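Subject: two folds for Thursday's group meeting

Dear M.,

Sorry for the delay on this. The cluster queue was jammed most of the week, so I only got both jobs back this morning. I'm pasting them in the order they finished. Each block is the input sequence followed by the predicted structure tokens. Could you check whether the formatting survives your parser before we put anything on slides? The first protein is the one we discussed after the seminar.
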Amino acid sequence: MSARTKARKRALDILFQADVRGDEIATILAAEAKRAANEPARQASWLYAREIVDGVIDNRDAIDEQITTFAKDWSLSRMPAVDRAVLRLATWEILYNDEVPAAVAIDEAVELAKEFSTDDSGSFVHGVLARIARSS
């Protein structure tokens, strides 16, 4: 598993925790940063996870607007928390990280959704992200 794939899982965990607990993302991020400092072997994945989460924090309104616009007939509050987190991290990659091709961001997000969410989440996430990628 690549360092970026691991980073996406870490970012997903942070975004999901904040959403489910109702905590600020920055609070969860700070706790994870403290933990990561004690785990040098995971440093490579931590740096990109932090970049993703910081990007989601900095662009949350625009990211959520894109998701809401392209998630036909689905409000953010109606989506499973895992799907929201996956969509946020992948939307950030598609819109704000020129180093990651949209197709890679979409494929990685679909795999995360399949692994951690409902049976229908993979196709739902794919559809939303494909529409976002086409519009950008």
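Second protein, same layout:
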Amino acid sequence: MTELIGSLVILAGSVFLFAAGLGVLRMPDSYNRIQTGTKASTLGTILVLLGLCVYHPAWTGKLLLLVFFVLLTNPVSSHALARASHARRIPRSDKTVIDRLEEAENRAGDA
């Protein structure tokens, strides 16, 4: 029974990882690609690691440490990539209507 649960959690993680790859291909600009790839791949990776915890209980400590590192590094790295893209003035899609960072920079420049 635990093998079935572990396999289902790993399968769910694989679906999210597939969705992350599909989102990176389908999104119109780099900012949306970063966001889509990071959210779905973080969840997919965590689900795969948790499924492995169920499947191999002896590895739980090491796998939970990996989950911690994924939760720590994926959002930070995507934030750094997005800020660097914004600083380099990488163009946004025409469908993007709100840029809070640019609004904040304009307010700071006016003050």
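Two things I noticed about the second structure. Helices lie at 2-26, 30-55, 60-87, 100-110. The chain has a mean pLDDT of 92.

Cheers,
T.
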